[in-house]
Amino acid sequence: MTMRRWLKTNNKTFAEVAIASNVGIDKTFDYAIPVELQGSLQAGHRVLVPIVKKRSLEAFVIDIKPKSDLDPAKIKEIAEIIDDEPVFSPIMIDLAKWLSEKYATPLYICLKTIMPSGISLKNNYVVEILEGVEKPALRGKQKQVFEYVLEHGAVAEREILEVFGKATQTAVNALHGAGLVVLKHSFEVKNLVQRINIASLKEDEEFFDEEAAKVAEKGGLQAKVLNLLLENASMAVADIKLMLQISSSPIKSLEQKGLLEITQKEIRRDVVGEAKTPFIPTLTDEQVKTLDELEKVLDIEGDKPTVLIHGVTGSGKTEVYIRTIQKVLEQGKQAILLVPEISLTPQIIDTFAS
Known about the structure:
Blueprint: H1 2-10, E1 14-19, E2 29-32, E3 46-50, E4 56-65, E5 80-81, H2 90-102, H3 107-114, E6 121-129, H4 140-152, E7 155-156, H5 157-164, H6 169-177, E8 181-189, E9 193-201, H7 208-218, H8 221-232, E10 234-236, H9 237-244, H10 249-256, E11 260-268, H11 285-298, H12 317-330, H13 345-353
Antiparallel strand pairs: 1-2, 1-4, 3-4, 3-5, 6-7, 6-8, 9-10, 9-11
Helix pairs in contact: 2-3, 4-6, 7-8, 8-10, 11-12
């Protein structure tokens, strides 16, 4: 059995990866490439790799190689590819390696730095009851957590910690170790859509008035949430927690009683904003002359010389940059504009968006 496993693993190629780490591990690791991923996995791909306790982490593939210096039988396999296409080009990987060596910084951090932030991963751990498990005899936090997951189905680990407190992590680990629950990874790529949890009262339910009266009579945090929603109809959960200085627990309790429902509302983050009507200034003689010289440089085949534009603040250099970039785009090429100060970013974005 061991020999067959050795031969199977030894036929695989290997990926050298840089792994996400909170302690700044400055080394790379070898992972075996499963048969189904061979041929599709490339250097520059973002992947999930297994670590201890059956948990996975984000990693970046920096090289594909036919063999490893480690015992192939002891090398774990890559779990999955996150993106269809590589996130990094070979040049970007070389740049990250140079940054890592130059500034004594872990390679993963250097790669993360040059990766667009809009595609970073949000790592959620989801707790589920193991299939076929009968309700066991439990006490304390373990009982509370088990019954909560049993009632709600798959529950994010962070939600459990919010409802029962950070000390509940020990109970979650104990349930997992006893084979009662399973921890699954739920990775999602962050995008420009922001999701907000909205709490709304279910006043149309027949039992609403009676149950609401019981909550109001009892008082406490649930009554405060109820009164706030009676005044505002619906509110973002985050706003309720902020205004009342509470956790999610009383809101969840009202949801369980059927007095309110929580829905998700998607709000698309507007990075650029609405484009304004462009103001096209008349160029000065110096700007026209500078643009003529730059167009001559753009028409040069092969390596082009570096051009330095000298001008005091307000002399019109930005307009020259805009016209030059427009010319480059018309040629089907691309351009990068470096902004000298972060405070100028909104102004530059508005200018180019218009």
